[in-house]
Amino acid sequence: MQVNATGAVAEARPLVFAGFPASSWIFALRVWLATLIALYVSFWLELESPSTSALTVAVLALPTRGQGMEKAGYRLLATAIGVAASIAIAGMFSQTSGLLLAAFGIWVGLCVYMAGMLDGNRAYAAALCCITVALIAIEQIDSPLQVFPTGVARGAAIGIGVLAVALVNEVLAAPDYHPVLASRLEALHRRVVDVAQAAIRGVPASAQDTANLLRDVVALRPEIASLTTESSVGTARTAAARSTMVDLVNELTLVRAFAALRAASATVPDDPHDGGLDLLTIARDHLHSEIVRRNADVRRSLEAMRAGIQPLRQWRAPLYRSRRIAAEGGVKAAIHFMLVAIIFVMAGWPMTELCLALAAVIIGLSSTAPDPRRFTMLAVFATLLACPLAGVLKYLVFDGVSEFQLLAIGLAPVVIGLALLIASPNPARSSLGRLTLVFTLAVLALSNPQGYDPETFVVTCLFAQLSAVLAFAAQLVLPSLSGDRRISLLLGAAHRELNNLVSGQVRHLAPEEAAFRDAARIGQIVTAGGGPPANRQVVTEAMRYFDQTVALRRCHAELERLATGPLAEAARAAGTALVSRNGRTVLAAAEALRQLALQRRLSVEPVLTALVSTSVAFEPRQALAGSGTEERP
Predict the structure, then answer these.
(1) What is the rounded CA–CA span in Å between residue 125 and residue 366?
(2) Of the N and C termini of the chain, which has fewer Cβ atoms inside 10 Å?
């Protein structure tokens, strides 16, 4: 820490060497050491595919300990499932190569469908189930009896890679992820507080800005799961971080409701006898107190996360899943693989099994990316970089050597250099670095003893590049789901869900958890959208559905609490008024409920606030205008 001339405290700048911070160099060193340990143990045990252990290290190369261990667990699980599927598929269709490829195409579609229904490392595990079958069953398509031994050897190599990563991270004290995640949540909290303060001053945030903020909050959901594997208090930190996210989303929904009420108040006549004015005042005061209370909940959850203790209230953070989008993605992925398979089978080229396996790997991994076509293009560039790198290592650096010490020294520049790219904050640069490292190690195919047949190497490089190009061409012939198509399906789902809520079909989720789920859909819409002004119009419509759905859920939850009390009849009347979607009708039901509550001397501010917010959400400008004047004598 340093103190500047004004007495303010400024944070010390991180050490930088050759354009990369010291933390990136330490991370790259850990990746290189883990790769060497994995290769050394694999050579010592004389495993069938020692390069698989090095590939595992490249896949698990993540800056923090928790992220790496969580991904390692899913990699082991997906490998076990993939080996079992390989044995089943090869056992049932080993007599006919065509049926085997067709069955594998269906398996690719199923795995991509599951990847579309999940997020984070869970989606990666679903894609890896497809990749494992490709690397085991497809490569052994002409020798099905070798499927089981190949699967066992692959599992052993992956286990060694996982242990090497865990050992190096522990010995070199890899950093924890929870401080980084806590800082990101605190930054998001500050942004939400700024939005709330602006709304209270009468300057509401735009629909686009609010949607972007919701996207940034829900984007942390897959990363929170890694806290569980980080330490003994990881489960408590995960629960606290999850509660923080849900509370942030709900604080934003309260702020938007408050801003909508404030905007609608301009249409209310300044008449002290106006019932609409009384309801508006009650709703605004209650919303203001709720915003303050929710803000305090966020602070307590953040403190619990820092301390590693359970939060006072634990929320679930459900993910929005579009079965239609996942199904279309799965079908197209299966077709992409079959197109590539048909080309290779008809051409009758050598090394067809390896090419099909690499194509399946690229198709499977692209399903976990927001833009599959862009990911496949990165894979094409990665193969173009990996093949020359592997050639330089094999024939200029190693050049026939067999000593492990020379192997370690020769690998250092490539592994450390690409690991520095992986540590880059730029997502595209990081993905390119990881793919290039993976493909370099795959093409290099390190073994003991190391082979140096130039003809085999050239053919492997050519067909590896061809596999990536054909996978990209298949996605050009049959494009993956476009952003417009995704938006159309997501908006259609939001509209149907709103209609179901209006008719009384309420999902069994707490309103806070359901709001987070809807925010996840908003995040998907923002991610799939194009640039303004088209995206602005889409986001405005999506946020309108979001506001109405959140308000309706709160109404149903509050009215349900009154269903068995002295206000049950008025609550049922209010529920009937919701079906009309008419702001004035809903407001009239709220006024009737208020008058009855006054007679019974009961406090019903939460349900009145929910009803008034719903009336404004459906008719933001007309609901309160003249609402107490038409029926007054």
Answers:
(1) 13
(2) C
Calpha distance 214→466 (Å, rounded): 41
In 3-state terms, what secondary structure has residue 309?
coil
Residues 240 and 135 in one domain: no
Tokens of 115: 């990847």
For residue 282, the SS3 value is helix
CA–CA distance, 206 with 627 (Å, rounded to integer): 27
**Cα 553 to Cα 557: distance, rounded to the nearest angstrom:** 6
338 and 199 in a common domain: no
> Cα–Cα distance between 12 and 212 in angstroms, integer?
31
Residue type, 276: G
Average pLDDT over residues 49-66: 91
User: From CA 37, how far away is CA 170, in angstroms rounded?
Assistant: 14
Residue with tokens 């009896």: 145
Q: What's the DSSP call for residue 632? A: -
Q: Are residues 60 and 170 in the same domain?
A: yes
How many domains, the chain?
3
CA distances from 474 to 109, 112, 357, 366, 470 (A): 15, 16, 15, 13, 6
For the cut 70, the answer to whether the pLDDT of residue 268 exceeds it is no
196, 295 contact by CB (below 8 A):
yes
Confidence label for 629 from pLDDT (cuts 50, 70 and 90): very low
Residue type, position 581, single letter: R
- Supply the range of the domain harboring residue 498: 488-618
Q: 533: cis peptide before it, omega within 30°?
A: yes
Contact 628, 273 (CB under 8 A): yes
56 touches 157 (CB < 8 A): yes
CA 214 to chain centre: 13
In the DSSP assignment, the letter for residue 567 is T
d(CA 330, CA 336) in angstroms, rounded, equals 10
CA distance 585 to 570: 13
Q: Would you say how long the chain is, in residues?
A: 633
CB atoms near residue 591 (< 10 Å): 20
384-443: pLDDT as tens digits: 999 999 999 988 888 777 788 888 898 999 999 999 999 998 888 999 999 999 999 999
- Residue 627, φ and ψ in degrees, nearest 5: -70, 25
In a domain, 537, yes or no: yes
pLDDT in tens, 204-230: 999 999 999 999 999 999 999 889 988
Co-location of 518 and 614 in the same domain: yes
Consecutive H or E run containing 2 = strand 2-3
* 376 located within any domain: yes
